[in-house]
Amino acid sequence: MRVTVIDYKAGNLTSVLKALRHLGAETVVTGGDLAIVEAAERIVLPGVGHFQATERLDATGLTPAIRAAIARGVPFLGICVGMQWLYAGSSEAPAQPGLGHFAEPCTHFSESTQKVPHVGWNSLEVRDGSRLLAGVEPGEYVYFTHSYKAPVTPETAATSYYIEPFAAAVERGNVMGVQFHPEKSGATGLKILGNFLAWQARGAK
Amino acid sequence: MITKRIIACLDVHDGRVVKGVQFVDLIDAGDPATQAARHAREGADEIVLLDITATHEGRQTLLDTVRRTARELFVPFCVGGGIRTADDAAQVFDAGADKVSVNSAALKDPMLIDAIGRSFGAQAVVVAIDARRDPNAADPVRDAQVFVQGGRKPAGRRVVEWAREAEDRGAGEILLTSMNSDGMRTGFDCELTAAVSESVGIPVIASGGAGTVEHFVDVFGRGKADAALAASIFHFGVSSARSLKQELAKAGVSVRLPC
User: What are the E-state strand segments in chain B?
Assistant: First the structure.
């Protein structure tokens, strides 16, 4: 099982690679070799830090290459900022567009007496029918660290609650995203990454 | 619901886990990789590895230890000790750490916080503060002083002010150690922890003094801590993170269970 991991210099890839390899995947890292993305069988877009970092995906030509891969049905998983990039954009960097696969924008947590960023282990409410989160029981915990969040929409695969409900995971066909860090979420996280690695188009052999 | 984190801390000296009582009297407590794996298995929400000898002996963080410890660890992993430059931090991240903790070097060159945050994100930068109260000060909490070099030298900064500056510069979390209570097992410094936690918008990890479950209940309540560090309480089979969290849950603290 080969997984292409996109490196756009938004933080550290080591933990994501380690978790994927632990699950038996062969990992290929690319920072802008479009031929690798064109040949990808499965793509992970990690990302910690600032939404502005995704400008590198545009600058290197990765954005259209990823769009094409998604269109031909390649399973895609965005993690943290990598998930937010699937949306229209983020108020963290208003001039930087996202992929727009999901129409809504990501926004900062609402004003509150609670601290932002949201850091730590929080529970998931998984919606029926999620394939990415299959086998995740109500109330299982995953590790978050973020200040911006995606809205709850029909494509939301799991919600979590901090200050307000937000999308902890999103899923439509072969395109999936998680706001939390499955590579840092113990057995629950590994189960979710395993589901992604096992994901196949319905009817595919 | 967001939970309070119980963080297992491994103080490492020459590649072995040790725990000091007020930073001296080191007692050998095992192999870091084995200990980290055990704590994760027993329900710790996060692992911190502090190379406690690195700064004053001028050594690099033990990258091999970090690599070995990170290999099979799938919870957040923070490494501190001897990180002086953004390049030092990059090496530690490459070895498998998710966060670095900076202390003396950040006081000497506060731009280090900005630099690491810019390259790796604020979530990857923990600013560790060793705090000591001066009982003779007008306001022992507000006037608590930052110490460096393993608690050997005053840095000439007030704790609360330094925590604020660290946040402004892009730190993602504050790890606050009370030098007065460290290793004493008489409880966290809840007043000082609350003063820092109320002054910043980022999570504060309380450290120093854990001895009983009530100490944790207290620091999560009165101390307004977002996470708490425990070292000696877990060593020598005193307790596990899981049993600690089960007791905390009974006391009404929101924790990650089952784990």
Answer: 5-13, 16-21, 24-28, 46-51, 77-80, 99-102, 125-132, 145-148, 153-158, 173-178, 204-207, 227-230
Q: How far apart are CA B199 and CA B111, in angstroms?
A: 21
**H-run or E-run covering A168:** strand A164-172
Whether a cis peptide bond, with omega within 30° of 0, leads into B258 is yes
> SS3 letters for B40-75?
HHCCCCEEEEEECCHHHHCCCCCHHHHHHHHCCCCC
Radius of gyration from C-alpha coordinates of chain A: 16
Question: Is residue A14 less than 8 Å (CB to CB) from chain B?
Answer: yes
pTM of the model: 0.94
For chain B, say whether A188 makes contact (Cβ under 8 Å): no
Does A10 contact B at CB distance below 8 Å? yes
CA distance B75 to chain A (A): 4
B151, with CB counted inside 10 A (0-12, 13-18, 19+), is: middle
| A59: CB partners within 8 A, 6+ apart | none
Three-class SS of residue B87? helix
Average pLDDT, 10 consecutive residues per value, chain B (259 residues): 94 78 52 90 94 58 87 95 90 93 95 94 95 89 90 92 97 96 89 97 95 93 95 61 92 95
Residue of chain B with shortest Cα separation from A141: B256
Tokens of A51: 């939404």
A201, amino acid identity = A
Q: What is the pLDDT of residues A54-76, one digit of tens each?
A: 999 999 999 999 999 999 999 99
Contact between A186 and B40 using a beta-carbon 8 Å cutoff: yes
> Strand B5-13 relative to strand B46-51: parallel, antiparallel, unpaired?
parallel
Within A20-99, strands assigned E span 26-30, 43-45, 76-79, 89-90
Q: Residue B60: its pLDDT value, please?
A: 52
Give the distance from residue B93's alpha carbon to the nearest chain A alpha carbon, in angstroms.
7
